[in-house]
Amino acid sequence: MARYRLVSERSQVWTEARSTLHPIHVETAGLEGYLEADVDGEEVRLRAPTRVELDVALLKSNNALLDGELRRRLEARRFPRITGELLEAKPAGNGRSVLRGELSLHGVKRELDVEVVARATPEGTLQVDGEKVIDMRDFGLDPPKILFLKVDPRVRIRARLVASLEQIPAG
To answer: Does residue 147 carry a pLDDT above 80?
Structure first.
């Protein structure tokens, strides 16, 4: 088993919510953390412990009003980080795995399952892609209401993690 460090500038998260007016998109790079994995050729088997973190301040929609409301709702000063920790990974065939982990958002920790595709790239990095729909109310968050704009509580989250083999210093 080897440890891979996330390449923060290449690891991204996209969120999409529906509102009464239009879809709301939030996109950011800056994920931090590490993956534990066994790699055999192109086959990647993720292992615990694996940890991914995101600074809430990095979440941006290109709408200052919405961004301010998002940070206020997430209580960014009180809960500045969103974290995910892998508890278990089960191979599902064709490069897919079903991950069971804990997502900590707004001070609330919930266990979730998500299907991901993990692969080794020709340049020697690992790439993990996954998607999950969550209900923000499960994390103690009421959907935002800005003037006449109402947001659906279900949010689609996609993530791409890119990680490179962690170099162990010669000792």
So the answer is: no
Pull the structure tokens for residue 7.
């390449």
- Rounded-to-integer distance, Cα 71 and Cα 151, Å: 15
DSSP state of 167: P
Listed in order, strand segments (DSSP E) in the chain are: 2-6, 12-19, 24-29, 32-40, 43-55, 81-93, 96-105, 108-120, 126-135, 145-146, 149-165
Sequence letter at residue 44: V
Q: How much is the pTM?
A: 0.90
- CA–CA distance from 73 to each of 68, 146, 161 (Å)? 9, 12, 26
- Domains of the chain, first to last: 2-164 (2.40.128.110)
CB 87, CB 113: distance < 8 Å: no
Bridge partners (DSSP) listed for residue 25: 16
43-83 pLDDT, tens digit each:
899 999 999 999 999 998 888 888 888 888 899 999 999 99
